[in-house]
């Protein structure tokens, strides 16, 4: 379990420092830097757990660079998600954060008829449109996600717009497979499996309360 990483004093110390840095960035409304640090912290947790599992494995599998895959998102530590979300909520007055994204995700599924089996550009997940992640230009159809640099890093953005890099950061080959241009999730189709995995994890952590 990824939560095992929280048993390491060294990791906890580094995490506390990074969370303090995140608070400073959010207080200064440096939303993009805060988003990048948030994604880094999530990924570092995955890498830490991966390294520990590899060291303990008697017959380690070939090493691959860890990413925020569906499996990794589904196992993120609730403590970390709550800590990150709490800072985003407080700094943005509830406008940004994982809680805002989870609320929007749940609301869209309750009010909008969406068939996840229709995986094409004309049927993007309603969540993407609600949080302002879709590419609304004549360059590409509406079902493609915006490039990361095209996101709105200010409070004028739609509610739940940030954090976002946790979703955008994917391997280059995955970017190509999703229709992108080696730039992460941007310019490609939305990956519903990763979105669902994160939202289900957030929901579970909310139910557990910690």
Automatic annotation (TrEMBL):
InterPro entries from the entry? Answer: GUN4-like (IPR008629), GUN4-like_sf (IPR037215)
In this record, what's one Pfam family?
A: GUN4
Coiled coil (residue ranges): none
The record's annotation in SUPFAM superfamilies points to:
GUN4-like (SSF140869)
Name-wise, this protein is GUN4 domain-containing protein
GUN4-like domain: which residues? Answer: 14-172
Report the superkingdom from the record: Bacteria
Xref: PANTHER family: TETRAPYRROLE-BINDING PROTEIN, CHLOROPLASTIC
